[in-house]
C-alpha cells in the first residue's frame, strides 16, 4: 500500500473499530491503527499510518508501542532498510492470549 491512498471505506471501518476498542477499554487510536494494518495488503511505516489517519507522529508512536506490548502488531525492518514497518497480528487466538495475559 506504499504511496497509495487508503479507500474511504477502510478509513470508516478503522474509525468504527477504534470506537469499539475504546468501548472495551483500549485507546481509540490503537483500534484505528490495528484495523488499518489488518486491512492492508502490505506492512506500513509509522509515517504512512500518521498520514493516512491524520494523526501526529507522537500519537502514532505511543499507540504502536502499546499495540506491540499487547502483541497485536509486529515490527520488522527489511534488509537494507532503516525504517520500521508494522503489520497486524491477524490470528484471533494470539490476540486473545495477549490480552488475557496482560489483564
Question: Which secondary structure elements does this structure contain, and how are they paired or packed?
Answer:
Layout: H1 8-23, H2 28-39, H3 46-53, H4 57-69, E1 73-76, E2 85-88, H5 92-102
Antiparallel strand pairs: 1-2
Features:
58% helix; 5 helices; 8% strand; globular; mainly alpha; two-stranded antiparallel ribbon; 103 residues; single chain
How many distinct beta strands? 2
Rg for CA atoms: 13 Å
Protein structure class: mainly alpha
Distance between the termini: 34 Å
The backbone outline, from C-alpha atoms, is globular
Uncertain regions spanning at least 5 consecutive residues = none
Strands of the widest sheet, in order across it, are 1-2
Produce a short descriptive summary.
This protein is mainly α. Helices cover 58% and strands 8% of the residues.
Would you write up a description of this structure?
Helix 1 (8-23) crosses helix 2 (28-39), helix 2 crosses helix 4 and helix 3 (46-53) crosses helix 4 (57-69). The chain is built from five helices and two strands; from the N terminus they run ααααββα. The chain has a two-stranded antiparallel sheet. The chain has 103 residues and is mainly α. The N and C termini lie far apart (34 Å). The chain has helices at residues 8-23, 28-39, 46-53, 57-69, 92-102; strands at 73-76, 85-88. The radius of gyration is 13 Å and the shape is globular. Strand 1 (73-76) and strand 2 (85-88) form a beta hairpin. Helices cover 58% and strands 8% of the residues. 27% of the residues are buried. The mean pLDDT is 88.
Amino acid at each position: 500500500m506504499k504511496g497509495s491512498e487508503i479507500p474511504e471505506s477502510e478509513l470508516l471501518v478503522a474509525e468504527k473499530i477504534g470506537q469499539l476498542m475504546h468501548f472495551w477499554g483500549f485507546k481509540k487510536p490503537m483500534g484505528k491503527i490495528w484495523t488499518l494494518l489488518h486491512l492492508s495488503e502490505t506492512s506500513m511505516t509509522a509515517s504512512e499510518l500518521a498520514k493516512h489517519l491524520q494523526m501526529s507522529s507522537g500519537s502514532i508512536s505511543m499507540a504502536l508501542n502499546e499495540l506491540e506490548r499487547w502483541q497485536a502488531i509486529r515490527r520488522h525492518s527489511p534488509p537494507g532498510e532503516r525504517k520500521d514497518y508494522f503489520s497486524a497480528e491477524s490470528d484471533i487466538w494470539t490476540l486473545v492470549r495477549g490480552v488475557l495475559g496482560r489483564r
